[in-house]
Amino acid sequence: MLNYLLGLFSNDLAIDLGTASTLIYVKGKGIICNEPSVVAVKKDGKGKRVLAVGREAKAMLGRTPGNIAAIRPLKDGVIADFEVTEEMLKYFIAKVHNRRLLVRPRIIVGVPSGITQVEKRAVRESAYSAGAAEVYLIEEPMAAAIGAGLPITEPSGNMIVDIGGGTSEIAVISLAGIVQSKSIRVGGDKLDEVIVQYIKRKYNLAIGTGVAEIIKMTLGLPMPDENTQKLEIKGSNLITGIPTTLEIESGEIREALNEPVNALVEAVKSVLETTPPELAADLVDKGIVLAGGGALLKNLDVILRDETQLPVTIAEDPLTCVVKGAGKVLDEIRLLREVTIPN
Question: Which of 97, 101, 183, 203 has a 20 to 30 Å separation from 282 between CA atoms?
Fold first, then answer.
């Protein structure tokens, strides 16, 4: 009964502070915030003033006049703009607590596994400045594995590949610890960037990252034996400067994405090569679990399966694995002590 009452009045939050999106899980209520990690800032004589956060700010990307900037304060999974991240966190925390400013929650934040001490301090300080009473950090692959329902506390190997907006986190986990891991700066943003460059180089057409994202999610990574899909896109002709419509084929996008996809495959292989034999043997049956937004890229699981000869499955709700896992950790004090990064 006491636990139930504590749950009712709990303000504890789990935050997946991602390059592309920020998700917040409230203890006892589930995920109640899933918004783009974008802040629109107006610059005037007095400095910066926040105009919009989240969806509203994302709609302004690439469309703002000179004195307004739509900023993504996180780059490659870590804080690039400290002040703006702090403002963004304050906004989201106030939003989930219905603007009750006296609330001081315990917060657990998912961070990339390759994060430096300076970057850890930046995340902690941002969370404290945004009103946290206590701050815990959990490595994203660990949180993703818990959120995907993997038995991380057992003495057996579990492999997770979490492909986010800024980074891809690859880890082999056993006995509530990361045995082998690698974090590479290849994620959804990099794939969008590669598509923008490819279209620019091949067709002299400038497109925005929003269009690149639509291309990526619609056409994916077609296999050689699949029927060709076509997609009409709009952009600005770099020679004439006039807005133009163009039709592209799925095979072209596979070609454009070859390099970053190969980098991801090589990173997965390098983690497998350095995994202790006993755990590697477990992976023959259990295989690899994909999480994060990148897991939704069509045929990525097929490519990884072909390259590693291991079973590859996509987590049930790949986009929310990190925040759900961090949320579960908040509910279990013993697990909280085992899997969070020490101060």
Answer: 183
pLDDT mean over 326-341: 83
Write the single-letter amino acid at 119: E
For residues 139 and 129, give the distance between their C-alpha atoms in angstroms, rounded to a whole number: 21
Using the predicted structure, report yes or no on whether residue 7 has a pLDDT greater than 60: no
CATH class (in words) of the domain with range 188-256: alpha beta
Report how far apart the first and last C-alpha atoms of the chain are (Å, whole number): 32
CATH of 2-37+76-142+321-341, one of 3.40.50.2000, 3.30.420.40, 1.10.3980.10, 3.40.50.40: 3.30.420.40
Q: Classify residue 296 by its DSSP letter.
A: G
Average pLDDT value for residue range 254-271: 93
Rounded CA-CA distance 292/175 in Å is 23
Q: Which amino acid is at 240?
A: T
Q: CB–CB of 288/309 below 8 Å?
A: no
Residue 8 has pLDDT above 50, yes or no: no
What's the CATH number of domain 153-186+257-316, 3.40.50.10860, 2.130.10.10, 3.40.50.10310, 3.30.420.40? 3.30.420.40
Among 223, 231, 220, 170, smallest CA distance to 191 is for 220
Q: What is the pLDDT of residues 288-326, one digit of tens each?
A: 999 998 899 998 999 999 999 999 999 999 999 999 999
Report the pLDDT value the prediction gives residue 273, as an integer from 0 to 100: 92
d(CA 250, CA 73): 32
CA 236, 239, 240, 243: dihedral to nearest 10 degrees?
-10
